[in-house]
Amino acid sequence: MKRVVATWMALGALVALAATPALGQEMEGAHEGHAGPSHVVVDPGDLEWMPGPASLPPGAQVAVLEGDPSKEGPFTVRLRLPAGYKVQPHRHHAIEHLTILSGRAGIGLGEMWDGQQIRYTGPGGFHVMQAGVAHFAMIEEDSILQVHAMGPWVLEYVSPADDPRNQPAPASN
Fold this sequence. Notes:
This protein has helices at residues 2-16, 21-26; strands at 50-51, 61-66, 73-81, 86-92, 96-109, 119-121, 126-129, 135-151, 155-157. The protein is mainly beta. It has one domain: Jelly Rolls, CATH 2.60.120.10. Strands 1, 2, 3, 4, 5, 6, 7, 8 and 9 form a nine-stranded antiparallel sheet that branches. A hairpin with a 6-residue loop joins strand 2 (61-66) and strand 3 (73-81).
């Protein structure tokens, strides 16, 4: 039971692994009118995929289904992540619910990367990540994950050196 709970908490973080208050600003207007008490229907073919927020390593794509991850309140996003994608140990400030829609993704718990601790799950996997639990993520094959959480969505790396926002900008030619 302890292992199952740990896996749920870890995988939820995977989804959360990406966003910060800046995410809402990056996605402003993506689905205006879909927040609040109105009925929401989103066809997968109508999703507007955008580059992931700066808090995630390059390569992530995100689509906002409802709400605003940068503001207080519930929101739902989908993350499209390529095979081999890694997110270093990090935490989130609020509880998150994660569902793997396609592909294969893994989460490990702890403040240090340990590939032996990663547990992979596939489509239909559901995980609940509690606030403040340090975890890391690895995407084994191209995957789409859905995150439902309470905003603002914040990703805090255990080591500031792992935060993509702290990486030097690539040199231009």
